Amino acid sequence: MTDVAAANDMFTARKRKSLPAEMNAFLGLVVLILIFEALGWSLMGQSFLFNKLRLSIMITQVAVVGILAVGVTQVIISGGIDLSGGSIIGATSMIAMSFAQSSVFPRAIYIEQGWVDLPIVIPIAIGLGVALICGIINGVLVAYVKLPSFIATLGMMVTARGVALWYTEGKPISFPTDGFKAIGEGLMPVWIFITVAVLFWLILRYTLYGKHTYAIGSNEAAARMSGINVERHLFLVYVIAALLAGLAALVLTARSQTAQAMFGTTNELDAIAMAVIGGVSLAGGRGSILGTAIGMLIFGVIFSGFIFLSVDAYYQNMVKGAIIVGAVALDQWRQKRQAMEI
Q1: Residue range 92-104, pLDDT digits in tens
Q2: What is the pTM of this model?
Q3: Which of 19-26's residues contact partners 24+ apart within 8 Å by CB, and which partners?
Q4: How high is the pLDDT of residue 68?
Q5: Residue 285 near residue 79, CB atoms below 8 Å
Q6: Which residues contact 156 (CB under 8 A, 6 or more apart)?
Q7: Could you tell me if 235 and 80 are in contact, meaning their C-beta atoms sit under 8 angstroms apart?
Q8: Domain regions of the chain by residue span
Q9: What is the rounded CA–CA span in Å between residue 230 and residue 223?
Q10: Which numeric CATH code is attached to 52-341?
Q11: Which of 267, 247, 264 shows the shortest CA–CA distance to 164?
């Protein structure tokens, strides 16, 4: 009896010591901010954090990938992976922008058909429609054909990028209408991200959709035995992830006022890294939108800090690669530690 009590006390002590993954990520964010603040005063003679323009640029830049990361988070929690988000951004941006062009540009793609100066709802609907098709294909391949999510979404990644390049033979598309530009003006991308993040935080936390997502990621067989329609739910998860990638594409295109076939390149890896840094487990069944949002801010602080310190872009890419590897290693370490605590 004494041994059992001692074991229970040890288990309780370990549980008290272990902070939530989101709290660990938040502490990491605070440390990074303090480091760049100290370097800013010592090397640049100015503050890194207390600069409204720098902060607004930083948050706006990562907000687009943050929208994508909200969808990727749900896929990972359900026990899968989605590598197609960045390419869906590329394909969606090209096709949506071709229907958002203004008649002031005489070489608009569909000017002969009269499809210029269209109401904003049309390019939005077409862009989301493209993303929806990609999501349906991903969902069918993963949920019903039973392909591994890595293979299914890898195939979509290559295909969607091919569509983006084929659509105008790699040529950029520009000159959107003023209405379409408004989607990406000012802090609008940030407000869109916040709306999406809060909405899906509530959905994952308080609805059956969220409960089923966690259940499937934790133990698919047990979820199936409990009466969850696993195939239908996984299909929905991949469709939602693709639609959020499409929304990210619309925001990015409007903000850039142009569309390029290579938009979104490696964004899927950034989104995965943001989620994992924020505590989402690659094994599935664990994580939150809040953690992903913190991971997004960590990315923003790192790269805004590098620009602030005039660090070469090549080094930024090296650090990005290290962050992705480090995020996966961190997830593996968290899983081992939790296994030891059980």
Answers
A1: 999 999 999 999 9
A2: 0.90
A3: 20/279, 21/278, 21/279, 21/280, 21/286, 21/287, 21/291, 21/334, 22/278, 22/279, 22/288, 22/290, 22/291, 22/294, 24/279, 25/277, 25/278, 25/279, 25/291, 25/294, 25/295, 25/298, 26/294
A4: 97
A5: yes
A6: 83, 84, 87, 88, 134, 137, 138
A7: no
A8: 52-341
A9: 7
A10: 1.10.3470
A11: 264
Structure tokens that stand for 44 in this block: 């640049």
Q: How far apart are CA 330 and CA 85, in angstroms?
A: 23
**pLDDT in the model for residue 22:** 80
Q: Report the C-alpha gap between 236 and 242 in whole angstroms.
A: 10
In terms of Cα–Cα distance, which of 104, 290, 330, 137 is closest to 205? 290
Q: Which residues contact 272 (CB under 8 A, 6 or more apart)?
A: 69, 72, 76, 81, 324, 327
Phi-psi label, residue 284: left if phi above 0, alpha if psi -120 to 50, beta otherwise: left
128 with 201: CB under 8 angstroms? no
